[in-house]
Design brief:
single chain, 195 residues, alpha/beta, binds 5-O-phosphono-beta-D-ribofuranosylamine
Length: 195
């Protein structure tokens, strides 16, 4: 039988997408396991969710590794140690080191809460994205899963799903609807990325 693939998840925030991946693996919907969670934020919900699920959780930041070379080396060492097959960025707020991009070329993916190329790039994270969608008067938004390249939100798109913007939506109500869509969508899409 083929060995289950190993997914390393990078996350900085609450970690609800990480949780969806963990749950998807546990339920057998994703034929893989989360081999490591890497965060630049030691107090993040993502780190707590990893520890609760007994998944090795690593805090790597400028505090733990003052130079970018040391930081990248520590991350790379961890990824190799747990035999990472693919890397999934689930709300990770840092750029990925070029050496790691080379080592895992085409195997690093990010989820973004809009229909890229709309509402992506620097500063487009969290509630800012959804506020910009409302301000622009859009009637639909969505979720994009894309490969990661050296810039923010510019890598090749793998899959997109639309989410309606409803009359009376605030950035908060829209954010909640998009986040729920993300949780379902990423479980479906990750399965196709493991092949
Ligand atoms: C998600 O909206 C994701 O698309 C974006 O960051 C958010 C992370 O949310 N990249 P969570 O920490 O997984 O709850």
């Amino acid at each position: 039988m083929q060995k289950n693939k190993n997914i390393a998840v990078f996350a900085s925030g609450g970690g609800s997408n990480l949780q969806a991946i963990i749950d998807g693996c546990k339920a057998g919907k994703i034929p893989a396991k989360v081999c490591a969670v890497i965060s630049n934020n030691s107090k993040s919900g993502a780190m707590e969710r990893a520890r609760n699920a007994k998944i090795p959780a690593f805090h790597f930041s400028a505090k733990t590794h003052p130079t970018s070379d040391e930081l990248a080396a520590a991350i790379l060492h961890t990824l190799k140690n747990c035999e990472t097959d693919i890397i999934f960025l689930a709300g990770y707020m840092k750029k990925i080191d070029p050496g790691i991009l080379r080592e895992y070329a085409n195997r690093i993916f990010n989820i973004h809460p809009s229909l890229l190329p709309k509402f992506g790039g620097k500063g487009m994270y969290g509630i800012n994205v959804h506020q910009a969608v409302i301000d622009a008067g859009e009637t639909e938004t969505g979720v994009t899963i894309h490969r990661v390249d050296p810039e923010y939100d510019t890598g090749e798109y793998v899959a997109q799903r639309t989410v309606p913007v409803l009359p009376g939506d605030t950035a908060e109500t829209l954010a909640a609807r998009v986040l729920e869509a993300e949780h379902q969508f990423l479980v479906e899409v990750i399965c196709t990325l493991l092949i």
